[in-house]
Amino acid sequence: MITRSGHTGGRSAVESYLVTREAEALVKAVRFDEYGEADVLKVVDVPRPVPGPGQVLVQVKAAGINPGEAKIRAGLLDAMWPATFPSGEGSDLAGIVAETGPGVTGVSAGDEVIGYTDNRASHAEYVVVEAENLTAKPAAVPWQVAGSLFVAGATAYAVVRAVGVTEGDTVVVSGAAGGVGSLAVQLARRAGAIVIGLASPANHEWLTSHGVIPVAYGAGVADRIRQAAGKVDAFIDTFGADYVDIALELGVEPSRIDTIVRFDAVGEHGVKAEGNAAGASASVLAELAGLIADGELELPIAVTFPLSQVQDAYRRLESGHIRGKVVLTL
C-alpha cells in the first residue's frame, strides 16, 4: 500500500536503521526511584554512557554488591550519603574496555580491567569510569572475583593499616568470614600477626585453613577470645553491634581499634573508623589482584546472580551469614 506521502505503509530502510541504532544505544542498568527494600530495585533501559575526557567506557562482566549499598537504598544513610532519584548503584566492577575518552592513555579498547566508580553506577551493562580508577585484570583472576574486589579489598587493606598490625601482634577480626573480614584476616596474617577470627562454626574450617584461630561469636565471646589468645593488641570490627565495647573491655587501646560500622564510637571512645575511602586507589587494587593471581590471597565468592536478578542478590546479601561476596554477572 502507498500512503498519501508516497511512502510505503511500513518503515523505510532509513527509519528501520534509525530504530535499530536507537535500540543499540540503550543498555541495561539498575535503578531505584525511592528508598525501600530490595523490591524497589529495577533493571531499566538507559542510554549507553559516553566517556568524557580522562574517562573510559567499560563493558561490565561482573560487579560485586555490598552492605553499604543496601543501607543507602533503604535510606538508612540518607543523612550522610543521600540518594538522588532515580538512583543507580554499585561501585565494584570488572570488564572490558569498550571505548576511551579524549586524553586517555594506558588502556585501549579490548583491555580487561578491574576498577571502581564513585557514581553509584557499576550495576549496569556499561559504565563510565575515571581512567585513574582502573587497573589491568590479571588473567588468573576470575571475573567474579575481580568484579567484587574493590570495596571489600580496599576496606580490608585500610583497616589492617589503621590498627598498625606488625609481626607478633594478636589481632581480632569480627565478621571474619564476610567480604571485608575474609580479606582482612589474610592481610593481617601476611603482616605476621596472630589472628583471631570471630565467625559462625560453619566458617571455622575455612578460617583454620587460612591460618586464623576461629572463635564463635555470641554470649561470652570476650572470655573465649581471652582463652584463645590472652592479650589482644588490635581489634578490627567489620560487623558492628557491641564489638567496639568488647575490644575496650579486652584492654585494646582505642587507637588500635577500627570499626567500619560503629561510626558513633569514634566520638564516644576515640576509636578509628577508617574504611574504603582510606584504601581506595587503583594501586591498592593492583596489589590485591596480584596477590590473588599468585594464589597468596583468596576472596571467597558465596553466590552469583545475573543482573536481571538484582533483587534476589540483595535479599541474599541482607539475609546474612555469607562467606565472602555476592556478585552480579553479566
Topology overview:
Elements: H1 13-24, E1 26-31, E2 42-47, E3 55-65, H2 67-74, E4 92-100, E5 112-116, E6 126-130, E7 134-136, H3 143-146, H4 150-162, E8 170-174, H5 179-190, E9 194-198, H6 204-209, E10 213-215, H7 221-229, E11 234-237, H8 243-249, E12 257-259, H9 264-269, H10 276-279, H11 282-293, E13 301-306, H12 310-318, E14 325-329
Parallel strand pairs: 8-9, 8-11, 9-10, 11-12, 13-14
Antiparallel strand pairs: 1-2, 3-4, 3-6, 3-14, 4-5, 5-7
Helix pairs in contact: 4-5
Looking at how many chains there are and whether they match, the oligomeric state comes to single chain
Report the helical percentage.
25-40%
Kindly report the average pLDDT value.
93
How widely separated are the two ends? 44 Å
Q: What's the total helix number? A: 12
What Rg do the Cα atoms give?
Answer: 23 Å
β-strand percent reads 15-25%
Shape: globular
Elements, N to C (H/E)? HEEEHEEEEHHEHEHEHEHEHHHEHE
Segments where pLDDT lies below 50 for 5+ residues? 1-9, 16-23
Largest sheet: 7 strands, mixed
Helix/sheet category: alpha/beta
- Strand tally: 14
